[in-house]
Design brief:
This protein has 158 residues and is mainly beta. Helices cover 3% and strands 48% of the residues. The chain is globular. The chain starts with 9 loop residues before the first strand and ends in a 5-residue tail after the last strand.
Length: 158
Amino acid sequence: VGRLTLEHRLSARGKFVAKEFCIDSSFALGWFNAGRQNWPLQNFVGVYFDSLSSDGRIVAPLYGTSQGNKREGTGHLIFDPGQQYEWTLDYDPVAAEGRGAITFGLAGKSVTLPLREGDKAVGASLDRFGVLNLPWANSKWCEVYLDDLTYTISASVP
């Protein structure tokens, strides 16, 4: 991927199916820094898939700057284990009045998480795209398959 920052436009899409997903299992999908992960979550732009909520299994946008970011109560979408979904993931650095925003689409619905004021200026250093084990989660196992995966990265925004 090369070295990316929160000034780059990032887009990905594909299909996924979570065949089995036990209680307390979670993982993240997106851009991250292979050498700098910690809690609070650092250097990440993407989504996290989490275990059962009162509504069902959830997926929600998530990010971490180089200084970290604790997960906030953000919007989420619901997915069912065993069902195949097409998804989209976009980070637009000029959305949300220039603060930047992550939008995740699943099954014809979408949820957007704007970055907090000043977080884009703090920045993040990203060098990989893929699945990331969340180092802070009390995660157990899940069986997930990704297919038709593509991602694109734009040049830095002036």
